[in-house]
Specification:
The chain is of the alpha/beta class. It has helices at about 10, 25-35, 75-85, 120-130, 150-155, 165-175, 185-195, 220-225, and strands spanning about 45-50, 70-75, 90-95, 105-110, 135-145, 200-205, 210-220. The chain has one domain (about 10-145, about 185-220): 3-Layer(aba) Sandwich (Rossmann fold), CATH 3.40.50.
Length: about 230
């Protein structure tokens, strides 16, 4: 039995929306409200958004009010949608794992994307992101699928629903063969990534996606003070 790996470049090539489980404004407002809680600086001067997509949450997150905003994504079709809605915004077609610049940002925001990165390149991603942070910056990696909840997700029990055994088993088996959710993280994996770059990491649950977690990383206070 072979496990098919997703070619994310091909998967997102012609997509024009982020494929959330609901794509109406009411859902986006609730989702944005949850994500805003992860950023303790309500008025950052600069923000780098990794995997900015089509910009569906851009204004709802208040990013339109930030003095210096940069968004990067590898999907031309998604970026084209972003530019149509916000022609004045700076967005770049870049590989998130390879991207690095001399600029420093108050917040680096990556939502529902880290799970799609090549697992072997995630260390490089954290290493590069740290170089673009100020002493008190935040790196927010939001909406990450949590491996201990994978079975509950496929059985729908994470939503308080019930699905018959055959259907949930088929769904779970399918996910092992070709999982369009990407990598399901464990807490230990994320903690290990953080340790390698000397980040402090905190976790938050998700009301909108109860099988996912948010990870917020920052530079330790003692290191910040020395800078």
């Amino acid at each position: 039995m072979s496990i098919k790996k997703i070619n994310w470049d091909k998967f997102w090539k012609d997509k024009i929306s982020p494929l959330h489980h609901s794509e109406n404004i009411s859902f986006y407002k609730i989702y944005a409200k949850e994500l805003r809680l992860l950023m303790n600086d309500e008025n950052p001067n600069s923000l780098l958004e990794i995997a900015c997509g089509s910009g569906e949450l851009f204004s709802l997150l208040g990013f339109d009010k930030i003095k210096k905003y940069i968004g990067i994504d590898f999907s031309d079709s998604m970026l084209n949608q972003f530019i149509k809605k916000y022609p004045e915004v700076t967005v770049l077609r870049k590989d998130a794992c390879q991207y690095i610049t001399q600029e420093r940002y108050d917040i680096i925001f990556c939502n529902a994307a880290l799970q799609c990165f090549p697992f072997k390149k995630i260390n490089l991603f954290f290493k590069n992101m740290r170089k673009m942070m100020k002493p008190h910056s935040l790196l927010t990696c939001a909406s990450l699928p949590l491996k201990p909840l994978k079975k509950s997700y496929h059985s729908l029990s994470v939503y308080g629903k019930k699905q018959n055994f055959l259907a949930s088993s088929y769904s779970l088996l399918n996910s092992f063969l070709c999982d369009t959710m990407g990598h399901w993280f464990t807490f230990d994996e994320l903690i290990e990534f953080a340790k390698k770059e000397n980040f402090e990491i905190t976790f938050h649950g998700s009301f909108v996606y109860p099988y996912r977690i948010h990870a917020v990383l920052k530079i330790p206070n003692n290191e910040s003070k020395s800078n």
